[in-house]
Amino acid sequence: MKALLNSAVVVLDLVSTEGTIDARHKDIIAQARACCEELHAIVLCPEILDSLRGELGRIGVSSVIPIVCPEAAITTSALLPSLESAYRSLNLPGAPIFFATRFLDRECAASLAVILGGCAIAEAVEIHVEEDRLRATTDALGGSWRGEVLATAAPACVCLRSRGLIPQENDGQCRVGEPIVLSLSDKTTRVHERAYQSGDGRPKVTEAQVVVVGGRGAGQDWSLVEDLADALGAGIGATRDAVDEGWAKRSAQIGQTGVTIAPKLYISLGVSGAIHHTIGMMSSGTIVAVCDDPDAPIFEIADFGVVGDLYEIVPQALEHIRAWRANEPQDN
C-alpha cells in the first residue's frame, strides 16, 4: 500500500494569472495530492475570489487561506510574513509546503524553510513518502544526473517541476479561511508596475498541449515554425540560441534558463538537444524531432525522429496536415 502523509500545503500564485487557476497550478495540486490524504492551499490572489471554494474543492483541496495582493507585483520580503502567518493558521505543524519553480517560488521556499525551521528542496521531479518523511527525486548538473533527497527537517518546502498532470475531479468541498491582506506600506522594496506583452493568439507555451520548438537549425526561415504551430493549434517554443538570435521572444525559451513545459506532444525543428534545453521538456508526452544531424542528442530521447532537411520535410507535413484538416467533418 502506498504511504501517504496526513496533510500537505500548496502555494498558488493567482496574481500572475489574474485570478485564474491554470494548468501549472493544477499540475502542482495533482502532484501534491498524490502524496497526502488531505491537501490545503495558500493562494495569492488579486482580490477575494468567490469562485475559489468551488474550483479548488473539485480538484481535491480541502481548505484555502487567501492572501490578497492588490499590488501589480510582489517581492519575497513583502510576502514572507503573510506566508508564515497563513501556514501557521492552518495548524498543520510539519506538513510539507509545495511551490512551483519560478524565481519567486524558489526564493520563498528557501526563506520560509529557514523561518519555520524546516528544509528546502529545489527542482523536484518526483515526490513520494518514505516512513512518514518526504523523499524527492531532483535534477543535478543540468539534468544529466538525478539525485534522491530525503527531508530530514519539517516542514519541507519543495519546488515541484511541472509534469503535465491533471488532478482528478470530485464533489469535494473547500473551506475558505480568514483572508490575509498583504500590506507593503513598511517595505523598502516594491514593484510599482508590471507590463504584460500582448499575445499572438497562440496558446501559451507553458499551457499548450502541443508545442512546436525551433532551434538554431530553423533560423533560415522561422516562418516554418510558426506555420506548423498554427496548423496544429500549437504553442511556439524556442531554444536559447534561437532567442539570442532574435527569432523568438525570451518568454518562449525552454530549458534551464527558460521555462519548463510538459505538453502531450513536443515537436522540435532544427534542435540539437543540448542538455540546457532538454532539461525543460523531458516530461513531454510524445517527442518528435526533425534535424539534419543523425548524431544529434535530441534523437536519444525522441519517440519519433526524422533525419533530414526540415525545409523539405515541414512543407510536406504542412500539406498533409492541411489536407487532413480540410477533410475533417464540420460541426453544425
UniProtKB/TrEMBL annotation:
Residues 205-281 form the Electron transfer flavoprotein alpha subunit C-terminal domain. Residues 15-171 form the Electron transfer flavoprotein alpha/beta-subunit N-terminal domain. Binds 1 FAD per dimer. FAD binds at residues 216, 239-240, 253-257, 270-277. Signal peptide: none annotated. Its cofactor is FAD. It comes from the Bacteria. Keywords: FAD, Flavoprotein. The keyword RNA-binding does not apply. GO terms for biological process: fatty acid beta-oxidation using acyl-CoA dehydrogenase. InterPro entries: DHS-like_NAD/FAD-binding_dom, ETF_a/b_N, ETF_a/FixB, ETF_asu_C, Rossmann-like_a/b/a_fold. Belongs to the ETF alpha-subunit/FixB family. PANTHER family: ELECTRON TRANSFER FLAVOPROTEIN ALPHA, ELECTRON TRANSFER FLAVOPROTEIN SUBUNIT ALPHA, MITOCHONDRIAL. The electron transfer flavoprotein serves as a specific electron acceptor for other dehydrogenases. It transfers the electrons to the main respiratory chain via ETF-ubiquinone oxidoreductase (ETF dehydrogenase). Heterodimer of an alpha and a beta subunit. This is Electron transfer flavoprotein subunit alpha. The gene is etfA_1.
